[in-house]
């Protein structure tokens, strides 16, 4: 119990520190590289929409322009590319994953014990058809920082991509135990919902995805997943409303992009993913 309390405090304080430093940087007459880095992190923590990610990247790039040796800002640009490689916001997810991996390789060559760099490398590997290696990197990150809740959640995603969605939920629950109010808890809940969709447990998927949207309504993918689950349950009016909510956030999303952007070619994963496509079609998600 004591370890759990310490972990929760550490994660909560980290988020508060970023927000406080970002506010201080906004007031600076001549912001330095770290001022700009914290402002970038504050935007990154606001959600995974195209606008927030673009604003975050802008601050990280400005930070690097002032100090090319700022490894935190390097890591920030890698975070943005990693998320773009796994969010279906772009038609070039593999290009973003490759860009992120190049940066992370550089960061780890200079700071081999950076837990966050190991986590993001695991994220990229999981997002680019290397789930087993990515899970191992997340385990390495946790060995360096046992409070890194996001690594647990990412391992859950890795289990989906390796064809084992039945193993995902415990990882998500562990992440939420360590950091129940995390800025990215919505993403973890979406991961659990996606696992339930792969298992054709649509009612459970709706519950997890609903919780995710209550936590953050601004990530388009969650709405499209919810639309699929609702449509598969025959709740077509609600499903179409969820589709419209997703398209309001990302008008460019299509089933084709979702299919082409699959992060793995695992046969089991690809087979169970058909359940997503069927639901999305019934819910009115654009095909092309």
Explain what the structure shows.
- The chain has 16 helices and no strands.
- α6 runs parallel beside α8 (149-161).
- The protein is globular.
- The protein has a single domain (2-282), classed as Tetratricopeptide repeat domain (Serine Threonine Protein Phosphatase 5, Tetratricopeptide repeat, Alpha Horseshoe), CATH 1.25.40.10.
- 74% of the residues lie in helices and 0% in strands.
- By secondary structure, the chain is an all-alpha fold.
- The termini are far apart.
Question: Tell me, what's the shape?
Answer: globular
Specify the structural class: mainly alpha
Overall mean pLDDT stands at 91
User: What is the helix content?
Assistant: over 70%
Q: What does the largest sheet look like?
A: none
Rg over C-alpha atoms, rounded to the nearest angstrom:
18 Å
| Helix and strand element order | HHHHHHHHHHHHHHHH
Kindly identify the CATH topology.
Answer: Serine Threonine Protein Phosphatase 5, Tetratricopeptide repeat
CATH superfamily: Tetratricopeptide repeat domain
For the record, the count of structural domains works out to: 1
What is the number of beta strands? 0
| Tally of separate helices | 16
Task: Please state the second-level CATH architecture.
Answer: Alpha Horseshoe
Strand share of the residues?
under 5%
User: Which runs of at least 5 residues are low in confidence (pLDDT < 50)?
Assistant: 1-13
What's the structural blueprint in terms of helices and strands?
Layout: H1 2-27, H2 33-44, H3 50-66, H4 71-84, H5 93-110, H6 115-126, H7 131-144, H8 149-161, H9 168-178, H10 185-198, H11 202-215, H12 220-232, H13 236-249, H14 255-260, H15 267-272, H16 274-282
